[in-house]
Design a protein that fits this description.
Blueprint: H1 12-25, H2 30-33, E1 42-46, E2 49-53, E3 57-60, E4 68-72, E5 86-92, H3 99-107, H4 110-121, E6 127-138, E7 141-151, E8 162-169, E9 177-185, H5 189-202, E10 204-205, H6 208-213
Antiparallel strand pairs: 1-2, 2-10, 3-4, 4-5, 5-9, 6-7, 7-8, 8-9
């Protein structure tokens, strides 16, 4: 499962070292680490998402990514870029998004968003194939799911064929979409499904309205300053050779002002 790790790789090294040491000094807890029906006794509440998970699972939730990854201690990542078992909640579009990504999210179409995320999984090194897809109801919210199998890159000899599920609830207008991602090696998928689906069932998502309701009411003060609404169209790192240019194509509403900031 390489998709998530590009944004959190700097956080993985100390965790991998800890897990490898734990595998040698804690043999008595090996059975608990591999228990796929363990009770969900721990919880995390971050980025507007609350999840319950089992003890002996590790949580990674770096601030700048807005993503949450859970994986069993007994199955640490193969390297800094590949997780074998786990549950992830990721925002979409990702930090390095395109205008097409942005427009798909604005459409509010869960099916289009799910397919766009799936397309990004086929990055030329790993190959994913759709097994089945369907519309569903997720805690009263319209959602779309894609079941898939994924063949890892040839360079990862230790990685096994993966099976998993992408679930995208329909985002509300003006909100970022979220993707719930469940995955495990294909040979262990049926064994891990119970705990992965239990984590999914525990998910509670706070939208912008609910978050605002939980905050104390603040009386607005009069101000002579008016701040116009704005939105980011492009935020990405690019390389442009000397004497060359990079074109961008997007649509602006009549009367809009375009502001550009460049950092070299």
């Amino acid at each position: 499962m390489k998709r998530f790790t590009a944004r959190i790789a700097p956080f993985i090294a100390p965790i991998v070292i800890y897990l490898l040491l734990f595998a040698f000094v804690g043999p008595g807890s090996a059975e608990a680490q591999h228990d796929t029906t363990a009770a969900l006794t721990e919880s995390i509440d971050k980025f507007g998402v609350r999840l319950d998970y089992a003890a002996h699972w590790t949580v990674i939730a770096p601030e700048q990514s807005g993503a949450i990854l859970l994986f069993p201690d007994g199955h640490p990542p193969i390297n800094r870029e590949w997780f074998t078992h786990g549950f992830a909640v990721e925002p979409f579009p990702p930090p390095k998004y395109t205008i097409e990504d942005y427009n798909i999210v604005r459409s509010g179409d869960a099916r289009r968003i799910a397919h766009r995320i799936f397309e990004r999984m086929n990055d030329g090194k790993q190959k994913a194939r759709i097994i089945a897809e369907e519309s569903l109801d997720l805690a009263g919210v319209e959602a779309y799911s894609i079941s898939y199998e994924l063949t890892p890159p040839l360079s990862l000899a230790a990685a096994r064929k993966e099976e998993g599920l992408l679930i995208v609830p329909r985002p509300k207008q003006g909100e970022t979409a979220r993707c719930f991602h469940l995955f495990a090696p294909q040979s262990e998928w049926e064994r891990f499904k119970p705990i992965l689906f239990s984590i999914l069932s525990s998910a509670r998502v706070q939208d912008a309205v609910q978050t605002a309701e939980g905050k104390p009411e603040v009386t607005p003060q009069r101000s002579a300053v008016y701040i116009e609404p704005s939105e980011s169209l492009i935020r990405q790192v690019v390389q442009v050779p000397a004497g060359r240019f990079l074109p961008f194509n997007f649509t602006l509403t009549r009367g809009s002002a375009l502001t550009a900031e460049f950092k070299v």
